[in-house]
Write a structure and sequence with these properties.
single chain; 343 residues; alpha+beta; D-amino Acid Aminotransferase, Chain A, domain 1; OB fold (Dihydrolipoamide Acetyltransferase, E2P); 2 domains; 6-stranded antiparallel β-sheet; 5-stranded mixed β-sheet; 19 strands
Length: 343
Amino acid sequence: MPLEVKMPLPPMEALSVDEIPEGEEWQYEPKWDGFRCIAFRNEASIELQSKAGQPLGRYFPEVVEAVKALRPSKFVLDGEIAVPMGSGLSFDQLLLRLHPAESRVRKLAKESPAIYIVFDLLADEKGKSLLKFPLRDRRELLDQFAAKYFRGQTAIRLSPATQEIKQARKWFEAAGGNLDGIIAKRRDFEYRSGDRTGMQKIKPVKTVECVVGGFRYASKNKLVGSLLLGLFDEAGLLNHVGFCSSIKAADKPALTKKLEQLIKPPGFTGRAPGGPSRWATERSTEWQPLAPSLVVEVSYDHFTGGRFRHGTKFLRWRPDKPPESCTMDQVQSQGGASLKLLD
């Protein structure tokens, strides 16, 4: 039988919600902090597809080899690629893999090998599509597949799943250290490729107080477009750690006037915005430095490599907080032991 599931296949996606849903129709899983990956095995052909439909195999040759080492010659798996570090996972190490040089990729693969955490079976070992099967059946078949073929494999792991809300809440309490939150999936739904109606994600809300060390004007006018955020390190230097652009349009004129009155170099005394980057544009390197007097509270999802991974969300101004209290220790990882969930 030919492999019935073909590339490219948009993965089933998750709707972001605030509360863990409850009911017999839900299955819960840890949300891993890695790269989404659908693995296709069709005889000698191994393809790793990213969430965006791009090939990942060249960046993770050890995962390709691990998939190739599984006994069945046909199957499709859905999961997450992650890089273990200590008892947890390192997103920073994962990002290092996206390098153009094959020699560099292979060196990193040897030094910090990645693992593939599997949470769904989309085509069985005969190549038969399971996309129309409800999750409760796919998960049962995945458990059987893993018990039969994952034994002795260190690079391919089965993600745990539960129908117990108490266990889901325990995983959620561990989020923020190594876990990215909780995933809830409808057990009665088929695999809804490219759709968010059958899966929900719940992430913990994390907040931090930052100094506004500068700002950028919007691209189309002379109103503030984003605030440049800073945190003080142990040496007392103010380092640029990210930005916040979620400013209400009605507040921008008054805020722009306030910020322009505070323009004063250098703004950041440590790492500054606009450094060398393959993504940098002429506009992205232009910014206005501010005297370190304004403190803002923002929410964020991840802090890795000395900066916020994504843009932050404005919560409120904190005139009651002295700028010097905005230090890096607010965002230092508390660690975690998420790998134990895969034992």
